[in-house]
Automatic annotation (TrEMBL):
It comes from the Eukaryota. This is Uncharacterized protein. PANTHER family: AMINOACYL TRNA SYNTHASE COMPLEX-INTERACTING MULTIFUNCTIONAL PROTEIN 1, TRNA-AMINOACYLATION COFACTOR ARC1 FAMILY MEMBER. InterPro entries: NA-bd_OB-fold (IPR012340), Tyrosine-tRNA_ligase_regulator (IPR051270).
Length: 86
């Protein structure tokens, strides 16, 4: 899945740290990973429920309800600060 942050007329894709392993799962900082779901049920509209809480903070780090999205090598980020992620 490709996620991007936007603010006004600027859009930029989010990136994991360059040292992160290709295919590594992104998780919320401090929260243990659950089992992966192969296919999300479209009728549940999970992404639509989550995306409203995805934003970049004052440092450009991707967050969900203020909790950073991270890999084992560090946070997912971009240059857009205080942007909406979609």
């Amino acid at each position: 899945m490709l996620l991007a942050a936007s603010l006004e007329n600027k859009v930029e894709t989010l990136s994991p740290p360059s040292t992160a392993t290709l295919g590594e799962r992104v998780q919320l900082e401090g929260i243990a990973l659950g089992e992966a779901v192969d296919v999300l049920k479209p009728k549940q509209k999970i992404l639509e429920q989550v995306v409203q809480y995805l934003k970049t903070n004052q440092n450009g780090i991707a967050t969900y309800k203020g909790i950073p999205l991270v890999t084992s090598q560090g946070p997912v980020s971009c240059d857009i600060k205080q942007g909406q992620i979609s």
